[in-house]
Amino acid sequence: MTTTSARQALVIGASRGLGLVLVNELARRGWRVIATTRQATPAWNDGVEAEALEMTSPEELAALRERLAGRRLDLLFVNAAIDRGDLTIDEVPTDMFTEVMITNALSPLRALAALRDLVRPGGTVAVMTSEQGSISLNTEGGYELYKASKAALNQLMRSYATRHADDGHTKLLIDPGHNRTRLGGPDAPLVPEESVPAVVDVLETQAGAPGLRFLDRHGEPVPW
């Protein structure tokens, strides 16, 4: 890891919720942060550099890669997820299934593929996931499409890690817990301002570790 003042991160999906708090926490710790949003620039801390991106667009990902040519990242973090309600899988329309899978599983891995060569040797590639993507922990009903999309994301990240096992990057799947965000709902037990600093602790502690890990916000392994 380079010195604190020189560390640079790119956070994909930082307009609100966990992504917004993550960007501000990294900036507070002295990271130089490039943050992407689909709309107007949110209330980021000073020193955050904004980039426009619709992550589901391969053309916009390619354009972002060109704009960032020559940058060297210590951290590439992809944060993106949608939920379309608590339906059983037989109730899910095909277009809804496609939308959720493209946003939650396909597009994060496309983002990694497009941007991974900006990450320096020894840097970290991380994706925000959820313990709801754990197959072994799926013992309660509900939210079947969301769970399936996160399980698909985790599986695709495992394939990515296998394919790029020798690139020198730390690879992380991070479960931040159930937070009060637009996605998590108003009754969630956690707030991002408390859980995200723990997530950043994990990112900083794990930097330089080989292989892929699926970890919670405390750095504990989450069962696959």
Can you tell me about this structure?
This protein is of the alpha/beta class and 224 residues long. The chain has a single domain (4-216), classed as NAD(P)-binding Rossmann-like Domain (Rossmann fold). It has 5 helices and 7 strands. It has helices at 17-28, 58-67, 94-115, 144-163, 192-206; strands at residues 8-12, 32-37, 49-52, 73-78, 119-128, 170-175, 212-216. The mean pLDDT is 93.
* Helical fraction: 25-40%
Q: What about the largest sheet? A: 7 strands, parallel
Named at the architecture level, the CATH assignment is 3-Layer(aba) Sandwich
Order of helices and strands: EHEEHEHEHEHE
Protein structure class: alpha/beta
Query: How many strand units?
Result: 7
Topology at a glance:
Elements: E1 8-12, H1 17-28, E2 32-37, E3 49-52, H2 58-67, E4 73-78, H3 94-115, E5 119-128, H4 144-163, E6 170-175, H5 192-206, E7 212-216
Parallel strand pairs: 1-2, 1-4, 2-3, 4-5, 5-6, 6-7
Helix pairs in contact: 1-5, 2-3, 3-4
Features:
7-stranded parallel β-sheet; alpha/beta; Rossmann fold; about 220 residues
